[in-house]
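Hey, resending since the last one bounced:
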Amino acid sequence: MRAESSATAAPSITVVASAPKRPGFGTLQAALGVVAFSLTFPATAWGLEGFGPWSLVAVRSVLAALIAGGCLLALRVPPPARRHRPGLAIVGAGVVLGFPLLTTLALRTSTTAHAAVVVGLLPLTTALFSALRVGTRPSRTFWVAALAGAAAVLAFTAQQSGGALTTADLYLFAALLVCAAGYTEGGRLARVMPGWQVIGWALVLCLPLTVPVAALALAHEPVRLTAHSVTGLLWVAAGSQFAGLVVWYRGMAAIGIPKASQLQLAQPLLTLVWSVLLLGEHLTVAAPLTAAAVLVCIAVTQRSRG
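The structure tokens again:
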């Protein structure tokens, strides 16, 4: 019996012991997630050229769920334990449904530059949710750097949008809250199951809702298939909704939710670059100055110890 107990415990001991040895790999995965997310708003803008907002959100979720479900079936992954299902429901409500729907509705009238305000506030909000939900206690230096980075991003995005608030702001701020909750719960679950399974099961569990909504939306909203609209749909489904979240949750599990969330301070700037290249939006000379300030803040948060 003792030998069996030791053999059973060995894998978990190995996992815990090896995780701290690869913080750089965890940071890389989280950074890849940020790059994937930075393309979400421009891709959504492309998707809205041919799909209605409800169609775009529902179809992207269904497509991502089919990809995730195929992977889960191919690898014969058992269903998640009952105790993990409430957490997966929060991930689904925040990341699979809430954030995509609210930001898509906002982008009907808001530019991607203005919408990037949400992403600028997301790291700080995620760190706050993490402190409340997971019990993390980052250092004072961490919070100072996080607040400074958030302020820099907010100032930059406000300057880009002329400092004017739009009717889309209610959607954006609501999206900020639900996404932070989903990120925090997903990062917590990624400590006990692979990150790709966290988002995979969240997507699959949402299918009973997303499939009928997709059918109804496609029947009532006009659809115009173009190169832009199809490319945008495919990216937000496979890139943002699945692949990006896979590496993002793995990164959060490896380096911690607060530190991973601060990497997203660079996301608004990346989004603005993609907006210039893909959407033709104008970028002012303030971008490199803000980028330098944000990179300094990211470096401080990554080196600070909680």
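Confidence is low (pLDDT under 50) at residues 1-21.

Sorry for the duplicate.
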